[in-house]
């Protein structure tokens, strides 16, 4: 079902860009053969996700129906809920790690390198009144800080920094 919804999303995206897209264009954009696209469209019409109308004797026009839009919306909502749940889990984990570091006497957190979830570290530090600093991987390691290595760092930088007292951010959130 997920591949069907992904294909429906691809068709929808194509029709937004090119409302009168041919079956050939739909197939090319979805990365499938015309024959397979024909079968998919028939299945989607049977499900009520796509509506066909004749433009002329040789050409059809395709439109996503309200049922198709509802299916895509449900998929988006499921994705958003799953993403929010993961973000909340990461936030709780990082807040707990920063709280433990503060309890251990650390008053600042230093992020070495880049991280996609830096905002969660910043939030944890603000919430717990811990100073947040961001440094390059080549900067000296601060011994009086809770030192974290961002997941966007090169593997050799991560290895060197963790061997010298830093915590790998990915290890923190996977615990």
Can you tell me about this structure?
- This protein has 175 residues and is α/β, with parallel strands linked by helices.
- Helix content is 58%, strand content 17%.
- The chain has seven helices and six strands.
- The strands form two sheets. A four-stranded parallel β-sheet has the order 4-3-5-6, with helices on both faces. A two-stranded antiparallel ribbon has the order 1-2.
- The model has no long low-confidence stretch (mean pLDDT 92).
Can you write the helix and strand succession as a string?
Answer: HHHEEHEHEEHEH
Spatial strand arrangement across the major sheet: 4-3-5-6
Number of strands: 6
* Spans where pLDDT lies below 50 across 5 or more residues: none
Could you tell me the radius of gyration in angstroms? 25 Å
Structural class: alpha/beta
Question: Kindly, what is the distance between the CA atoms of the first and last residues, rounded to a whole number of angstroms?
Answer: 32 Å
Oligomeric state as shown:
single chain
Shape: elongated
- Total number of helices: 7
Mean pLDDT: 92
Q: How is the main sheet built?
A: 4 strands, parallel
Beta percentage is 15-25%
Helix content: 55-70%
């Amino acid at each position: 079902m997920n591949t069907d919804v992904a294909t429906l999303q691809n068709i929808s995206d194509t029709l937004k860009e090119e409302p009168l897209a041919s079956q050939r264009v739909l197939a090319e954009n979805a990365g499938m053969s015309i024959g397979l696209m024909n079968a998919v469209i028939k299945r989607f019409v049977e499900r009520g996700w796509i509506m066909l109308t004749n433009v002329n004797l040789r050409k059809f026009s395709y439109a996503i129906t309200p049922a198709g839009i509802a299916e895509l919306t449900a998929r988006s909502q499921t994705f958003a809920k799953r993403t929010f749940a993961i973000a909340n889990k990461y936030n709780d984990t990082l807040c707990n790690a920063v709280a433990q570091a503060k309890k251990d006497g650390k008053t600042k957190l230093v992020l070495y390198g880049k991280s996609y979830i830096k905002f969660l570290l910043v939030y944890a530090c603000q919430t717990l009144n811990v100073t947040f600093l961001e440094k390059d991987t080549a900067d000296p390691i601060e011994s009086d800080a809770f030192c974290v290595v961002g997941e966007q760092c090169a593997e050799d930088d991560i290895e060197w920094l963790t061997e010298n007292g830093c915590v790998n951010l990915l290890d923190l959130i996977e615990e």
